């Protein structure tokens, strides 16, 4: 059985039970491939994007593009579960001890309640690490948990995902760095990417997390110091 056959088998097994599903969509390569595999099977796919700062142009543009590409997609944006921790402890902002700490499980349950949908899809793979490998191998078909969380890309590797994107001529996914797990985060390389390509979005982040300005200040200072040492 090929990787695509396995993914389609997992997707089809859910389709026999429902025609509406949730997909946690990060705008990255794994979720892009997963959406393309799922799209022919379901009447409605609610793509859930978890944000740290809402209204970033490069994110909104990408989400509009996938909605135009797939007529059965509905977009839902919700606060990232890690955002609650950042606000609670005052990460790059003023701490707010009244913020309730959330988990991915909490977000999943909230979206299910709002949509009335009982199956949620994720782009996680066994190749992502030991923890995920052990977790996924314990599920039905190594892809479906007993809480209706579904992982059709369970057997895939990064190279398989990239090959699928190329073969299907899918749009270039958002990639802030070349490293694994390259979603939007308070990282110097990520911020440098935004500074070069989407400076208006970086300013929006600064408004919510003002102390994050120090990330690039430190990055630039270290880079300048390294250049001096090499001379």
Keywords summarizing the entry:
10 helices, Rossmann fold, 231 residues, alpha/beta, five-stranded parallel beta sheet, globular
Note the topology.
Elements: H1 3-15, E1 20-24, H2 29-38, E2 44-51, H3 57-69, E3 73-79, H4 81-89, H5 104-115, E4 120-121, H6 130-137, E5 149-150, H7 158-168, H8 188-197, H9 199-208, H10 213-230
Parallel strand pairs: 1-2, 1-4, 2-3, 4-5
Helix pairs in contact: 2-7, 8-9
Tell me what the structure shows.
By secondary structure, the chain is an alpha/beta fold. It has two domains: 3-174, HUPs (Rossmann fold); 179-231, no CATH class. It contains ten helices and five strands; from the N terminus they run αβαβαβααβαβαααα. It has helices at 3-15, 29-38, 57-69, 81-89, 104-115, 130-137, 158-168, 188-197, 199-208, 213-230; strands at residues 20-24, 44-51, 73-79, 120-121, 149-150. It has a five-stranded parallel beta sheet, with helices on both faces. Strand 2, helix 3 and strand 3 form a beta-alpha-beta unit. It starts with a helix and ends with a helix.
Short description:
By secondary structure, the chain is an alpha/beta fold. The chain has helices at residues 3-15, 29-38, 57-69, 81-89, 104-115, 130-137, 158-168, 188-197, 199-208, 213-230, and strands spanning 20-24, 44-51, 73-79, 120-121, 149-150.
């Amino acid at each position: 059985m090929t990787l695509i056959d396995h993914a389609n088998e997992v997707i089809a097994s859910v389709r026999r039970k429902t025609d509406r599903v949730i997909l946690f969509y990060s705008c990255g390569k794994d979720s892009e491939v997963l959406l393309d595999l799922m799209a022919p099977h379901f009447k409605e796919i609610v793509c859930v994007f978890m944000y740290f700062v809402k209204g970033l142009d490069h994110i909104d543009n990408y989400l509009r593009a996938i909605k135009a590409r797939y007529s059965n997609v509905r977009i839902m944006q919700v606060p990232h579960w890690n955002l609650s921790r950042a606000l609670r402890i005052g990460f790059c902002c003023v701490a707010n001890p009244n913020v309730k700490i959330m988990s991915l499980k909490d977000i999943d349950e909230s979206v299910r309640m709002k949509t009335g949908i009982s199956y949620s899809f994720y782009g996680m793979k066994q190749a992502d690490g030991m923890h995920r490998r052990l977790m996924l191998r314990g599920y039905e078909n190594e892809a479906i948990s007993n809480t209706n969380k579904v992982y059709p890309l369970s057997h895939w590797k990064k190279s398989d995902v990239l090959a699928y994107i190329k073969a299907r001529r899918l749009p270039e996914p958002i990639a802030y760095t070349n490293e694994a797990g390259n979603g939007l985060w308070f990282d110097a390389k990520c911020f440098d990417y935004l500074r070069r390509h989407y400076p208006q979005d970086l300013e929006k982040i600064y408004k919510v997390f003002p102390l994050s300005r120090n990330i690039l200040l430190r990055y630039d200072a270290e880079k300048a110091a390294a250049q001096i040492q090499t001379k």
